[in-house]
Write a structure and sequence with these properties.
Layout lengths: L4 H7 L11 E5 L2 E4 L4 E4 L2 H4 L8 H11 L12 H13 L4 E5 L2 H20 L5 E5 L8 H6 L3 H4 L9 E4 L4 H7 L4 E6 L13 H13 L3 E5 L23 E4 L10 E5 L1 H4 L15 H14 L2 H25 L2 E7 L2 E6 L7 H10 L2 E2 L1 E2 L4 E4 L7 H19 L2
């Protein structure tokens, strides 16, 4: 069967508009399409391919587990899931883990747990969930409602209730709305889709204090910021603030679908048998790959190198910007970076993405005004240099029309 990009329009639902080429093979931070053209990957599958494409140790873990056990259902447990859960609890504040298949599912579990915990401990009147405008927490109806972008949640009928939004980094706005009725505050410790926005120190510590004051759980959505992305295993570790619930996915499986919700033993008690579940959650294949990815990433060597590479990228963007004057600032932390376009290029982020693709570079956008980069944490200096050269040519094309 000959597979072409045109086939997408014939057989797939039209909710995506993928690039005109079809990638067929990847190695490290390089990708090849059907024609054999080579691309450098600064997108990382949207912060997923934490160790690049086809990392030999992840491939080996998948092959090894693939010869043993694929699926059981949660009538049974399995060794890879237990090992991964033990390593996650050893490495974080958490004492209990719930496995799912995606970030949205991990967030769905976190929100359901927060509501159930409040009901068990304080009564049914404590049901308000507060999150932040331009936040993103997934595409299930509950998570998209909690996410602060109406464009994603409108048009599907009545939304889940008792969900309210305030501006990110506006502590006074949160103070005005939080109360003893609040069961949870959900936030990204580094907003991704919303434009690569870091929290101020005052804000993130203030959110924690307000949650404590009102017996509300603090949920950190670390689906995009977790597993080494910021140069810490999880972003909360660099902020001096510990959440009550943390969600992780994307990079956790290094490209194999998996999500997890992490919390304390006390809070987890509200997920009694039968309250929540997932057919595939804790799948042996996914957990085996994720365990290996976690082992590799959670080393000082890899995490420190993320911080070094951040500076390499920032220096490269600064040099490009000195020539072409397109960015107002470069935001973000570690290897989750966003070039925020200045007033002359407002609304044109996608043009930069398209131009980059033409120069054989894969990158992302975060809204209409930010070009987003989330490469593999182990991307080589050589690939960074070549990718930046390609990006410079793309910028030149946009600037010169």
């Amino acid at each position: 069967m000959q597979v072409t990009r045109e086939m997408f329009n014939e057989v797939m639902a039209p909710n995506y508009n993928p690039a005109g080429f079809i990638p067929v093979r990847g190695q490290g931070s390089r990708v090849w399409d059907q024609n054999g053209d080579e691309y450098i990957d600064f997108a990382g599958g949207i912060a997923v391919n934490v160790l690049g494409h086809c990392h030999p140790e992840l491939v080996a873990a998948l092959k090894e587990q693939g010869e043993k056990l694929w699926h059981l259902s949660n009538v049974f447990t399995n060794e890879p899931a237990l090992r991964l859960a033990k390593k996650l609890t050893d490495a974080t504040f958490a004492e209990r883990v719930y496995f799912a298949n995606s970030g949205a599912e991990a967030n769905e579990a976190a929100l359901k747990l927060a509501r159930r915990y409040a009901l068990d401990n304080f009564g049914e009147q404590k049901d308000q969930i507060i999150s932040f405008k331009q936040g993103f927490h997934g595409r299930t109806f509950f998570t998209v409602t909690v996410g602060g972008q109406a464009a994603y949640s409108d048009g599907f009928g009545p939304k889940p209730g008792a969900v309210e939004h305030v501006d990110y980094n506006d502590l006074d706005a949160l103070k005005a709305i939080i109360s003893d009725r609040t069961c949870a505050v959900m936030m990204e410790p580094l907003q991704g889709e919303g434009g690569i926005i870091s929290p101020t120190d005052e804000f993130v510590k203030g959110v924690r204090a307000l949650c404590d004051q009102h017996n509300a759980l603090l949920i950190f959505d670390e689906v995009q910021s977790g597993v080494g992305r910021t140069g810490e295993l999880y972003a909360y570790m660099g902020l001096g603030v510990t959440p009550d619930i943390l969600t992780t996915a994307k990079a956790l499986g290094g490209g194999f679908p998996i999500g997890a919700m992490l919390t304390t033993a006390k809070i987890a008690e509200s997920l009694k048998v039968g309250t929540h579940g997932s057919t595939y959650g804790g799948n042996p294949l996914a957990c085996a790959v994720a365990e290996r990815a976690l082992d590799i990433v959670n080393t000082r060597e890899v995490l420190d190198d993320v911080k070094r590479k951040e500076q390499v990228f920032r220096d490269g963007f600064a040099a490009i910007n000195d020539k072409y004057h397109v960015f107002e600032e470069v935001r973000g932390k570690g290897l989750l970076l966003g070039g925020a376009l200045n007033k002359d290029y407002q609304g044109r982020a996608r043009e930069f993405l398209v131009a980059a693709t033409e120069q054989k570079l894969m990158c992302l956008v975060a809204g209409a005004n930010v070009v987003r980069f989330a490469p593999a944490l182990n991307i080589s200096d050589e690939d960074i240099k070549e990718g930046l050269a390609r990006f410079e040519r793309a910028v030149e094309r946009v600037v010169n029309g």
